[in-house]
């Protein structure tokens, strides 16, 4: 099978009555889902969309949206998803950048642009077509671009990360082998389906012939657990912020699924120490995976932190198709260690071929099939990868490399502290020293001296923050990453 969409059609023949995808309002077997995709593909062709054309789609986090994405790929066109909160102006801006043939939104606006269509109207029209209205003579090939995932940064120009069918298959295999996915897997995915994290877990299940239940976030915890019970969910994909919200909303409800949940996949941002300990206590028999990767390289490292050997800052070992090595700033391979760290680089079929029409940015991030990250890391004596953080975030205290996440994880164990963030600040003697920002729980009085005393017992003296400041909120991205540059 050379593409994810081909896998769906293959399983439509092999296991036609097996559950493929479902959301809060609908469910489809593999046969039904492939038929839905086929109708969508036919209507796209009728609207003059062809191979290589770009189609921008606003995420609606349901089966219609997922089917539209695969319908676009079925005819060899390029699926360009954007976030569900995206304004029509931003959507049309992305459409202009990639010269999209069509763009789909979920709201009727004032726009009279002929390329902008309403998703619900389009799906309704496609459903009037005959069964399997379109079947290709050949499914899309390995090296064809099937997706462009645009970065969601608020500053600077947008970067469109190109993804081939081969990339998505390699990424699917990385997930499948990494979590030991079985044929009868039923995975709940409330993670945003315009983001690489959620999409790639969905694709992995489709490539395996398993089942996916998609939900629009975790704020409706009652619906989430109802879907888990209804479809006998045995695995979940979450971003760390979603896990944090779910643990607060559901209290100890997760514990009832200890013998049911095979695994939970986490990734896209570091997991808060308190949440990690809480989920481990509730689900002692569940594999808890932390994936490391990027949109450019996908899930390239995996670590089960519920396996009994939870190492600080460990991201595990390379996934199925990934080769990981460390390089210096000149991209020369280095033999890494705690004393001789490097920048993490990866090679493998999962790596993006480059950025859409941007050779300059492509050369800055990748070369000869290798994606070069800005993450400082090393292999320890066991062969595990220890991640210190972004090179510019790692604090260099008189030559000692300090991970801000290591400090934050210890701080969050202190009773009364709700959140924290750590950065390096200039120091005339040591070059840099750690500065800690702390958010206290409601009703708790800060005690800076006590925080320092606790940390002195937990880590080397050079890691203990020189400065501690109490603030109201730690700035974070939607998926939980600390915006360190906003801390001063």
Automatic annotation (TrEMBL):
Keywords: Ligase. Residues 406-481 form the AMP-binding enzyme C-terminal domain. Residues 11-356 form the AMP-dependent synthetase/ligase domain. Coiled coil: none annotated. Pfam families: AMP-binding (PF00501), AMP-binding_C (PF13193). One of its GO terms (molecular function) is medium-chain fatty acid-CoA ligase activity. GO terms for biological process: fatty acid metabolic process. It comes from the Bacteria. The keyword NADP does not apply. InterPro entries: AMP-bd_C, AMP-bd_C_sf, AMP-dep_synth/lig_dom, ANL_N_sf. Belongs to the ATP-dependent AMP-binding enzyme family. PANTHER family: ACYL-COA SYNTHETASE, MEDIUM-CHAIN ACYL-COA LIGASE ACSF2, MITOCHONDRIAL. This is AMP-binding enzyme.
């Amino acid at each position: 099978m050379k593409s994810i969409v081909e896998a769906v059609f293959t399983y439509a023949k092999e296991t036609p009555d097996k559950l493929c995808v479902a959301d809060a309002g609908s469910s489809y077997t593999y046969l039904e889902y492939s038929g839905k995709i086929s109708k969508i593909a036919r209507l796209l062709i009728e609207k003059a969309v062809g191979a290589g054309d770009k189609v921008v789609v606003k995420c609606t986090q349901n089966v219609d949206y997922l089917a539209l994405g695969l319908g676009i790929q079925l005819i060899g066109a390029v699926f360009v998803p954007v976030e569900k909160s995206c304004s029509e102006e931003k959507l049309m801006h992305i459409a202009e950048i990639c010269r999209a043939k069509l763009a789909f939104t979920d709201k009727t606006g004032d726009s009279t642009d002929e390329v902008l269509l309403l998703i619900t109207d389009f799906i309704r029209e496609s459903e009037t077509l005959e069964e399997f209205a379109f079947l290709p003579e050949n499914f899309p090939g390995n090296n064809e671009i099937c997706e462009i995932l645009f970065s969601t940064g608020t500053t600077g120009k947008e970067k469109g990360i190109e993804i081939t069918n081969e990339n998505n298959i390699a990424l699917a295999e990385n997930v499948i082998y990494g979590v030991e996915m079985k044929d009868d897997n039923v995975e709940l995915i409330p993670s945003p389906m315009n983001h690489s994290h959620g999409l790639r877990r969905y694709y992995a299940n489709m490539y395996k012939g398993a089942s996916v239940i998609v939900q629009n976030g975790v704020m409706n915890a009652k619906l989430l657990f109802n879907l888990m019970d209804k479809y006998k969910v045995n695995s979940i994909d979450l971003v760390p912020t979603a896990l944090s919200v779910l643990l607060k909303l559901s209290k100890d409800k997760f514990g009832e699924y200890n013998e049911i949940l095979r695994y939970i996949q986490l990734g896209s941002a570091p997991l808060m120490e308190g949440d990690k300990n809480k989920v481990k206590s509730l689900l002692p028999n569940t594999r808890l995976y932390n994936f490391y990767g990027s949109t450019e390289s996908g899930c390239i490292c995996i670590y089960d932190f519920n396996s009994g050997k939870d190492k600080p800052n460990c991201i595990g070992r390379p996934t199925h198709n990934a080769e990981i090595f460390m390089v210096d700033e000149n991209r020369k391979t280095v033999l890494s260690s705690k004393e001789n760290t490097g920048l993490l680089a990866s090679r493998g079929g999962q790596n993006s071929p480059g950025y859409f029409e941007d050779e300059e940015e492509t050369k800055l991030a990748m070369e000869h099939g290798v994606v070069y990250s800005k993450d400082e890391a090393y292999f320890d004596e066991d062969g595990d990868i220890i991640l210190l953080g972004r090179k510019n975030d790692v604090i260099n205290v008189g030559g000692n490399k300090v991970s801000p996440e290591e400090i934050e994880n210890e701080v969050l164990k202190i009773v009364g502290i709700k959140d924290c963030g750590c950065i390096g600040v200039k120091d005339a003697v040591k070059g840099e020293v750690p500065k800690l920002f702390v958010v206290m729980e409601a009703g708790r009085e800060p005690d800076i001296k006590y925080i320092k005393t606790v940390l002195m017992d937990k880590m080397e003296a050079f890691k203990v923050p020189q400065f501690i400041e109490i603030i109201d909120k730690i700035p974070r991205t939607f998926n939980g990453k600390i915006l360190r540059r906003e801390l001063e």
